[in-house]
Amino acid sequence: MPSARDARDWAASGGLHGIGDSLYTPFSGTDGDDIDWDAYRQLVRYCLSDLGHAMLWLTSGIGEWWSLTMDERKKLLEVAVTEARAVAPATVIQACTSAASAKEAVDLTLHAQAHGADICYLQTPPMEVHAGEGVLRFFKYIADRTDIALGMFNSPSSGYVLTAQEMAEIHNRIPAVVAVKEGVQDSISRSAALHSLAPELVIWECDLIVYRAGWLQDGTVGPAQLGTAGYLYDTPDKPWYMQYWRLIWDGQLAEAVAYAKESGLDSYQASLGKWFVEYSGRAEYFTHWGEAFKYAALIIGLPIGDFPYSRPPQGILPEVAKAQLRAAIENAGMAGKAIHRVRGSMGAPSAR
Questions:
Q1: How far apart are CA 160 and CA 132, in angstroms?
Q2: What pLDDT is attached to residue 126?
Q3: What is the Cα–Cα distance from 125 to 137, expressed in whole angstroms?
Q4: Residue 56 belongs to what H/E stretch?
């Protein structure tokens, strides 16, 4: 685990690399009030051992952090770290420790620091953010009380999107801040401007077109997919997502583009639609729809707990969404492919 003092050297030396799986939370019991810990352990092991992905991204949007108690968030991190170190000790552990309260964010960050996380990401707080000044104060409050590498998560789901200038100031003022997940996807110009203002900052631009345009090779973005649902795009017998990214990382851009088209990877990603990030009842809102991610995982054959929905305040995934996700996964030949790989008996996936 890099200290705050060593964070920039760690990031510059490739500390962040490969595919980082953002884990969902498998709920169980009445109204999803419990967590299926066995299912969660199986998911961790599947991502790291069966798929060979290099990083984990814990208790963030896909994990429905806003619906979790502090104790649940802490235990999810502890369980993931224990499982990861058992099957893949070199796994990079990324913990998302933001909260509406800066004091709670400090508590979560200190806990992650004490239990083996490598870096903690702070998503812009969801309430009463006074633009860049307020977010800078939030980061400084946490950095002054912790000793671990920190990152930013710039997402429209927070309600306030940081500008390139605001993110650069946070990085330049706080040495522990070494990376950003730039998840807005409204314009790639923000990442280009940010790199020019903060060239040491490791940027993951979620608009993946920039990687085909050579931005990794020219140093604008970094080699890591900090937090993504890679387990929905790879299976042990069909690691096409990993193969595509190896070509990108190796600088074989034309080959990567051709592979994505010819293998069907591009078509598969398009056929999933936008159910993961859009809710029809709230126009133009960017969401992390937990149930959508978990339903897709279920069709692939992963355990999701016996409560298949998101916790409130998210809605219920409609049948039209389930039909589209199931068809996309079945047409890609990925349905049920994880079942024989995860530990324990799960039975066949059902269309809940």
A1: 9
A2: 87
A3: 11
A4: strand 55-58
